[in-house]
UniProtKB/TrEMBL annotation:
A Pfam family reported for this protein in Swiss-Prot or TrEMBL: AbrB
This protein's record includes keyword Repeat: no
Species the sequence originates in: Paenibacillus artemisiicola
Transmembrane segments: 7-26, 32-50, 62-81, 87-109, 155-172, 192-213, 220-237, 243-263, 275-299, 338-356
NCBIfam families: Gneg_AbrB_dup
Name of the protein in its database record: AbrB family transcriptional regulator
InterPro entries: AbrB_dup (IPR017516), AbrB_fam (IPR007820)
Keyword Transmembrane in record: yes
Keywords: Membrane, Transmembrane, Transmembrane helix
Amino acid sequence: MSERKPLRLGSLVATIVLAVAGGLLFKLLHIPIPWLLGPMIAMLIANNAIENRFYWPQQLRNTALIIVGYTIGLSLTAAALKEIAHQLPYMLVMAVLLLAYCAGIAYVVSKFSGMGYKTALMGSIPGGLSQVILLAEETEGINITAVTFTQVTRLMMIVICVPLIVFSPILGQTHDAAATAAAAASAVQPTWGGLFPNILIFAVAGVACALLGNRIKLPTAYMLGPAIGTAALQLAGVHGPALPGTVIEVAQLMIGIYVGLMLRPRQLPNKLKNLSLALGSSVLLIAGALGMALLLSALQPVTEATGLLSLAPGGMDQMGIIAHEIHADLSIVAGYQLFRMFFIFFVVPPLLRMVLRIQPGDRVKRRGAA
């Protein structure tokens, strides 16, 4: 026991040092969202080069989710909630379209790979990673390793590619460091002193709501719980102070490390084939989300960037961070992501179970693995 603690501490320190180095490098290179992407790429490379050397406790990732949940909750004002209610029919249509598109991608992947429609479908569903893995474990004839790898690859592709698309000429955004600095200088910046005393109320409420949400099995409880608690306090008339940029960057770093450590291609059989299929399906999914975002911006008064972040099938925490960074409509992004998350959490599992009973058995060669 006494040897294990120093080992874990050393691994934690090495993880933090490498992640900070990745963030600083991406910041020097003026890459968008450097404190999310830098640590994520650094940990992806390092963890696959040196196995079992890095360590990141779940509690730190949960702390980052509470911070992101708080920033999302700040955007859920009474006016924003009215706008979200107005968008509900569009949320439903876009969620159904995205899921139908994912089912089509799964069919194509299953035909080219021979992995079986069940496994391909589970890998393509744009739900929360933990939700999909749990559902896959409960379904007979599923290759769990392939599903996990495909889901994590999709998540990382979205987190990497969406900022690049948002800051590209396609959506009219530009990543101009000088303009960003000038805008930041002219804006009123949150201060550490301005956090108190109200931040103490929100901190206690956020942690309590996260723990309660986790206890009642709320999806993404450590983010959704604080978001709901923060919004409720604001609607009750309690002012929620904006967080300093340093706090947001630390939260990005903590989430970036967690995502980077999730993907371990060395543990996957048929690496090249599975990686190619995962990357290909992820590209198709991002292209579909971009097309739907352009459609949404034509139908509703939202920017293309807000539409893409609202519909991108990534985690709500990552999309929320990017929306905050580019000053997109965070309430709309959160509303669409929340709706799809609840839709997938409550509606999709029974539908999937029904569809997967009808589909022929998955032809995964489990006998070879055994």
